[in-house]
Amino acid sequence: MVATGQLPIPQITARRFGARCLPALTDDALYERTGVRVAFTGRAGGVSEGPYSSLNLGNHVGDDPASVERNRALVLEALDAADVPLVVPSQVHGEVVVELDDASPEALDAAREAALAGADALVATVPGIAALLCFADCVPVIVVSPTGRFAVAHAGWRGVENGVAAKAVRALARADAAELGEDAASGYNVYVGPHIHASCFETGADVRKRFEDRFGSSCIPDERHVDLLEALTVGLEEAGIDRARVADAGVCTVCSCDEFFSYRAAGGICGRHGAVAFRKAG
């Protein structure tokens, strides 16, 4: 049983997992407190080749499907979750949230079908299910509750604008309401993985205006760029998140394209790193 006291302030640190010493970003204090493992993978540690080298987790980018499946298995093995069923949605830059509220085989099949139909966030309200979403510049978001429930969201600029992460937070808060009350989200930890940072995210004037109109001038650092992290944080605050509990990995994928996949830096042909979360049953 997971206690429902206050979570430790989120800290994202680098470490290596498993016999293969697979590198990932995580929060060990969170794991010790709740049993929820969060991880942001990088490029290293897999079997893919060429522009997908080496830990590509995306099966929609032209890589060998067998290599992708092996890479996903390697991640779960390294995280000591080889026996945990995995759900991976087809990401469509939308705002559909799939709730994983039953770990039975029948419910899992239904959830996978819904996720494959198109979704950009998964909310797990029961243990025994692992969620994986894939990225190459878009913003990876993992939200964890003191109850051990969690959400994983994929937020490109359209996802930030349409509030997919905030929508996932609200779904999580509904599941937590009986235990944590109406302001459940204020105690959540939010982990933001490697993504394109403001200095590299140059946009047209129309996109900047949309973001300024929606999230305010704080997300427009200058006349050329948009700060997705700031806009995301504003949206999360509207859903009840405490800004002090939003931890950014501090890595720009474009600037660090040797360690993480970047669609912009690669000219559109590259693999995808992942945001993974799970809590084992029992």
UniProtKB/TrEMBL annotation:
GO terms for molecular function: copper ion binding; hydrolase activity; S-methyl-5-thioadenosine phosphorylase activity. Signal peptide: none annotated. It catalyses: S-methyl-5'-thioadenosine + phosphate = 5-(methylsulfanyl)-alpha-D-ribose 1-phosphate + adenine; inosine + phosphate = alpha-D-ribose 1-phosphate + hypoxanthine; adenosine + phosphate = alpha-D-ribose 1-phosphate + adenine; adenosine + H2O + H(+) = inosine + NH4(+). It holds the Pfam family Cu-oxidase_4. Keywords: Hydrolase, Metal-binding, Transferase, Zinc. Belongs to the purine nucleoside phosphorylase YfiH/LACC1 family. Purine nucleoside enzyme that catalyzes the phosphorolysis of adenosine and inosine nucleosides, yielding D-ribose 1-phosphate and the respective free bases, adenine and hypoxanthine. Also catalyzes the phosphorolysis of S-methyl-5'-thioadenosine into adenine and S-methyl-5-thio-alpha-D-ribose 1-phosphate. Also has adenosine deaminase activity. This is Laccase domain-containing protein. It comes from Eggerthella lenta (strain ATCC 25559 / DSM 2243 / CCUG 17323 / JCM 9979 / KCTC 3265 / NCTC 11813 / VPI 0255 / 1899 B).
